[in-house]
Protein: Laminin EGF-like domain-containing protein
Amino acid sequence: MGKRMNALRYCFVIYILSGSILCELSKCTLNPDHTEEICNGGGSFYRIESCRERHGESDVNIPVTPKPSRSAWLIETDEPKNNRSVILNIIKFSRLCGNMKLYIYDGTSVRSPLIAIYSNLIKARTREKPSPLLQATSGSALIVLSRRNDKIDDCCFVIKYSFEEKCPIECGRHGLCSKGICNCSAGWTSRNCSLPTCPVVCNNGSCDAKTRKCNCASGYSGESCNITDNRNFWSSPVANNQDALDGVSSHAMAVVGNYIWVFGGFSLSKGPLDVLARYNIRANRWEIIQASTEKHQRPSARYGHSLVAYDNHLILFGGTCKKGAVSNETWILNTTSRQWTLLRSSVNKPVGVSGHTATVVENEMIVLFGYNPEQGVSNLIQVFGLVDRVWRSSKVDSSIVRPTYGHSSVLHPGTGRIYVHGGYRMLNSSCYRASSETFYYESKAGKWYQLHNIGIPRFLHSAVIIDSAMIIFGGRGEKELVSRHLMVFDINEMKWKFPINTTVPKTASRYGHSSVVVDSIMYAFGGFAGLMFNSFLQYSQGDCMSPGSSINCFEAFPTPSVLLKPLVSSDSCTSHNPSSDQCHLRHTCADCLRGDSDDSCLWCETLNQCVSKVTLRVTFPYQQCMQILERGTGACSDLQCANVKTCRDCSMLPGCGWCDDGSGTGSGRCMPGGKNEPFLGSGDSYADCSKSRWNFINCPACQCNGHSKCVEGNRCENCEDNTAGAHCERCADGYYGDPRNGGKCADCRCSSQTKLCDSEGKCRCLALGATGDRCDRCLPGYNRGGDFCYYTFLGSKKDFNVTGFKTFNFEYTLKEEKRSVSVAIKWKGGNKGSKARVNITMGDNNEEEIKYGHEKVPFTTEFRYNEYEFGSDGITIRGYIYDIESGDEGAFLRITIENLAETIDLLEFFLTFFGCFLSLLLMAGIVWKVRNRYISYILNRQRREERQKMASRPFAKVSVFLHAHNKSTPGPVAVETCENGKASVLTVLMRLPGTEDGLTPIGQSGLCFASVLGTHTEQTTSAPAPKATRIRTTKRCASTCV
Structure:
């Protein structure tokens, strides 16, 4: 490997300026151990036109390249055809990169083999577990930074790169040359790294060159024979012909005898695969199988399928094929005759699924769940009879087990239970999450039981059972790869455990792999962790789980005891509505993102596929789609080379280059291509673009869009054809169109209120109140007068938002005579930086006279009634505010029009005052007279009523003898009994005192009537007689008499 190591150190800060996305990068430095970047966030920025850079062996200082949502770096040797590799080491990829991804190609274009994809999902490794080195054997490496949306993100990443030295010998694919000597990769030896050997040093044993494994001495175990107590350990065997298979994920494996069979899978460089291979465990060698077929038919390339072994046959079912189609085919391979057979059934056809699991239980293959474009992620149970070869299916209630994708299922032979763990699970019709739940299914009883949730969600992992332990390995979580690579569920103790004191291989983090068990050893093959793996990882449990073993290999997971809870139906979860997910039926970008389609649809330009937003992780589990377009974030044409009109925009698309037309004006066309030349496409002649006119890394210096020649190398001299701008990229004022790449500009046909229009000819109404395509109509509240729209002012005060406008007109009609008018125009709230001028006129509709012209805002004036002929019909004040410039805080005008108070006329005042005063006095006198007469009338009426009342009272006569000759008992003149009958008012006749002679004084009365209240000593029911009633006077009575 070369001595000199360069590094790409970039900090990205994305800004949105004037509607376009710009990506500015600040220089970054690394601390000495390359574990932390220090970014100069406030430092200088450099701007260049291209979005791409080329780095060669002679480059020492790495320039900083600003630019948009996608940038690209091409790293290549100075002599690309000398069979020297580019070595890349991903040091850092910050979490702040959000949705950004790094796509790394082994070559000079996006059609070169894709060797790695890095994003936030793939965490940066530590120094103890560094990321695997990437080797671009073509001598060139294209790195593309892609982002999904237009949100502002800060992104820092660091990539160290070097070049393989020139070497007198050929080191092949298993070594790198340094100082004229081949440094071989692990598991290879000899001068040119062509002989296989053990990948590790056999400390207490010998290396078997055929199996490339250590034969340990008695009492020792482990990959390098360094373990003495037969505990659990990891190993990373290297097959003799390791390179026979590409790195794959989402493949399927099954064990038949001494062979591990593998079919299909997904490759970054080739997509879905149809390779059938088997691994000879004893010989440590791969063999590519060319199976015969009926009528030359064989399973198509696919991934996410299942493969099980039964009676020397392999049963292949489902999977995702090319173009995203999900298969429902059932293929059967006879491993003895090596012949494929497609099972054809006219009835009971299975539902095609991907990301499901298949488990053999006695004579049945039980397929659980999976993803289907028509039904979404499902909770369907499909059973295939291995003897009668008939399919049947049933559906689990979503409240028992929710629809799941990418889970694991494994059979425990002792109980016949199928243990299901994790998966990408539906919470509701628009929400999916990675799950950490565990169930077991009793297929005969059809019952589900839930175990304890360990709280570590994962999907696309693997599961195997060794003795009484279910081993969960790998997988990805919600936002990153799972941190606990291996978990063990002890079926006998019903407890979760994790291994301790075990050295985990640096490549253990992965998902999408497959695992099988052979001789109590777990074999995990393939998987994805930024790059695809094509090697095995082996895990041996040793005697850790053996009964009576004293070896402490595991530690119990800190959770309560496992719950054995039978699951019953509940309506707590919203079921998925498959009819709303029709994205997979749309086959063009326009159809996928059209206005009446579902908002959840996304378009993948890389694969020409329309997918649902909620199942994006299911459809592209390995982030294999680089260009994703969502409705509202751009147009379909933005992702197609032929629709791009400038070299600068063309370089934003990673698969496009610019072919200059040779005129020296910047005209050309954007084509699909790489660093060296355009791609040859059917039906399009790209052969006329010579290499001298092809631009992939940089753009031609002169970029005038065909409307000018350049002076001083890159400055457009005079923009012709009614164009303007530094690169003649826009139409001049008064013209519209798209002048880029030789486009035309036409006259704007607008009213006199504006001369500007947009690129489609629609006039830009710069006068507040004007509207219409030609700005020839007025908004409600505005009146048209000639060529202008006037706001009809009704007086007092009003605020107007004139931000973005150049003119504003208003009018006020005078309605009162001999009243002066004040007009004030000022900025509301200061409005820093806002400017404007104003003209004020007065007159009628036929003639106006300018009273104030070219005044600056703020402006205040008065119109005195004794100076103007107020009160005439049609006299109007009009204001014309123009040359408005909005400041930093926008522009808000406050206009105030008020009628001013004038001097009082004293004679008129006093005449009016006394007239009002006398009128009030007269009215007061009249009211007083009327009041007196009314009171007199009321009194007379009351007297009459009293007399009438008195006259209507009962009366009687009584004879009184003042001097009686006989002796008699005195009695009352009248007795009036109270209502309760217990008291009475007695009226008696009393003689008043007189003179000594017994005479009444002159002028006085000698007799009077007196009343007294008395109580009865006995109750009587009739009117009292004088002799039968005794009256006793009292001072008070309980009753009240009237």
Remarks:
- The chain is about 5% helix and 35% strand.
- The radius of gyration is 51 Å.
- The helical segments are 589-592, 616-619, 647-650, 906-951.
